[in-house]
Amino acid sequence: MQLGTLFSKFKKKNTHQADGSQPYIYQPTMPGLTYNEAVNSLAKKGYPIRLGPVEDLADDFLDQLSTEISKHGIRIQDYFIDINAYNQYVTKAGYLDKYKDYYWDNRAEKTLEHFLAFSQLRLTKEDIFIDIASEHSPVPDIYRALSGANCYAQDIQYPSGVIGNKIGGDACAMPVPSEFATSVTLTCSLEHFEGNTDTQLLAEISRILKPNGKLIIAPLYMAATESVQTDPLYSVAADVKFDEHCTVYCKEGWGNRHGRFYSVKSLIQRLINPCKELDFQIFRLRNYPDLPHGIYLRLFMICIKK
Predict the structure, then answer these.
(1) CA distance 11 to 8
(2) What residues have CB less than 8 Å from 58, skipping those under 6 apart?
């Protein structure tokens, strides 16, 4: 199975600022540009190009990854989904009736990500939760209904500022005070943050989290080497600047301009080392064959504010 074919093919609009000053346009177009012309344009810029998706779901790759990252003092812990609890969550949350149109053709993956985060956060009415790059996600409403927590949805496409339970503007500079939230989620979102905004984002989340607060990143996308997947029709039109040492995988029809896959080295350099106030724990989902077909979550990360 190819994760690059699956992850985030269901489009998120305006998930972040691509840089600090220019508006982020999710799917800019260049009239008349063909896929092959776009691929050639990227190649002329000197990027190592591969055609097709990043492949990173194989168990032997994940075994090798565990061995490699352990050399840096990081252990990938095994994790098993409680399938009965997952099914109960899906029913109680109302995905099949209240939210039946939400990712209807990718519901198993999205509900799994949401359940995983909810089960790890263990929200109560005392908590303040933020779903970053939420767009039209029902997560804030579901978590509020199931836990009584004060839940916010953040997205760049919302009007700037805090309006009701929506936080608009750049996720790397949220208009909320330090130590505002107890819990934050990034589900199928971190990979879309271009340039150094992934590092900036974690620094900002560290700022807004209370001590012992949790961030859930699910899935955590990793590959054998530092990589990015793109639909070149959009990345060329947007003049996306890819990371200097990454291989660029061009997936025709994918619909996203940027999807980062960390290597062990880049994960440590971009996220773990710069964010000294966060404790990082990585988990590997082991019983995915027992879950619904189409699940592509294999790794996730929990970050706890020290």
Answers:
(1) 6
(2) none
How many angstroms separate the CA atoms of 152 and 141, rounded? 9
Of 266, 226, 221, 282, residue with least CA distance to 8: 221
- How many angstroms separate the CA atoms of 262 and 225, rounded? 7
Structure tokens, 138: 């029902």
Q: Which residue is it, tokens 């639909």?
A: 231
Section 71-86 average pLDDT: 97
Q: What is the DSSP string of 52-103?
A: S------HHHHHHHHHHHHTTT--EEEE---HHHHHHHHHHHTTTTTTTTTT
79 bridge partner residues: 285
pLDDT bracket for residue 22 (50, 70, 90): low
**With contact defined as beta carbons under 8 Å apart, do 100 and 108 qualify?**
no
Tokens 């492949």 sit on residue: 55
**What mean pLDDT is reported for the chain?**
92
pTM recorded for the entire structure: 0.92
Q: How far apart are CA 305 and CA 187, in angstroms?
A: 19
